[in-house]
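Worked example 2:
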Amino acid sequence: MAAAAAAAARHGTLDIMLSATADYNAIFKGLQSIFQEQEMTETIHNWGDLGYLATYINKNGSFASLRIYPHGLVLVDIQSYNDMKRGEETEQLLNKVEERMKELFNKDIKRLKRLPAIVRGDAIDRYWPTADGRLVEYDIDEVVYDEDSAYQNIKILHSKQFGNILILSGDVNLAESDLAYTQAIMGSGKEDYTDKEVLILGGGDGGILYEIVKLKPKMVTMVEIDQMVIDGCRKYMRKTCGDVLDNLNGDCYQVLIEDCIPVLKRYAKEERMFDYVINDLTAVPISTSPEEDSTWEFLRMILDLSMKVLKPDGKYFTQGNCVNLTEALNLYEEQLDRLYCPVKFSKEVVCVPSYMELWVFYTVWKKRTDV
């Protein structure tokens, strides 16, 4: 762990947009003394109409680049080893560059932006993408659990703000702060689970199971393919799952460590029916024997099988995607028009804290036909 942390790089940036009338040749001259004070070796590349690039290399392994674009954009990047001393040196160097640029081009500066330093290659990865491709830096301070199962990589990372966060194959699944997610995928408090038969697909973090058991159902069956997800969450996500994962069988629930596809097919053949089916599978569902030609066909198969085990007045709950991915949401809704039976649906938009984006949840039910 110590060796990995020592190899991490700290990347500081400063972006400046100058007016078209600024004297770009003065930038090199104005900043030259700053880098010389650091005993950095300068190399300048001239691309003519495409601008300039200057690199500055230090004996201590740090280096800086100064990129000047012809339309007025000036980028300063400084990389160094990520330790306290060099981190302070990087910040001081950026401070000096910023101050000098303000002295030289105060009237010509249209915009000046300095981002927090990015730490690359650290033992603790703080950067995770949102569903719509934006990069989020979490306040992660500890790797609690990191294991590879037969199906996926399982990480549980501790966030000062969100508590422990379950991340499956790079996808943020659920944090201890995310009760809003669990409530939304259960119907946002509008459903009566008393004496009801409930089927949960996935849900290895135990959050849905824990909340439904409190509502006195007749029986909850949870089908989770990955025992290692359950093992990790039972130990490190107890604020989410409580004690329901301590045993795979309880007074009103059972947890099956199986692929949900053959289980759904078995229940459909047996004509076993449920009042609620809650699909909490990962974004791209895992199966031991996929039968789909595409993700959408696989999702439609799960939907079809779920409808076959859903009572005529039952409800199917699932997460959708973030509100910005309108194309993916539309494609999902297209699948609802292609099921073996006609259905209706509604959707709700909920803010899930650790996702840092608004998330869409679906309720699907069978369309009643007059006989």
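The first helix runs from residue 2 to 6. Residues 1-5 have pLDDT under 50 and may be disordered.
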